[in-house]
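Hello again, I could really use a second opinion on something today. I've been staring at a protein lately and its backbone has me curious. Can you walk me through what the tokens say about the fold? Take your time with it, there's no hurry, and the full record follows here:
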Amino acid sequence: MTRKREGKYFYCVIPCNQEKSFGNIGMNKEEVYTIPYKGVAAVVSDSPMMDYELTEDNTRRHEEVLRHIMKEHTVVPVEFGTVIKNERILSRLLRKAYNPTKECLRLVDNMVELGVKAILNKDIVYFDAEKGKECTSDILESLNSKAIQAVIGELFSDRLFLNASFLVDKGGIDAFSNEVARLKEKYLMLKFLYSGPWAPYNFVYIKIGTQGIEVSQKVK
């Protein structure tokens, strides 16, 4: 399979040992395809060497590619806007990060990330702080029972009770969703923002920087 000798926009790594095309669904509507190496594969599309602005359209396109790939494969996501100069350099990065990438793929095999925020409704002027802690603890315990692991995010507002990401097996998404629905009925003073499924950014991650390739994982 002959490809253009230009930059490669890097979306994620998947367990795959063959060249595969996912169609023209990538950035700039380019073909998304795999570059395999010893049982893992980088998922890329051809791209000029450029800085991609963090616009709504660009981030949506990036996420749509990941969601499409996730239908069939476990993914270790790559930071938005990562463009590698050519396939030779990308293959070298895959070799260098082979072992930690394989471990990340094992840790999140068949799993996705789901996000939950719980916000105090606008019409409630005052809510007891201790009662709020009890609610948050109960919500977190309930959702943790349906998840593999959770990462707690920053509470960037006084009205934000919970900001968390959950690692959930694909087969457990319905049970997790049902638990969110139950909590909505239980805590009518709170507005729940439920999102996903996403690639597991908060649990495994690949970043390319001045120091080379960095593979991080928070899965216990």
Observations:
- The CA atoms of residues 47 and 160 lie 40 Å apart.
- The mean pLDDT is 89.
- The longest strand covers residues 111-120.
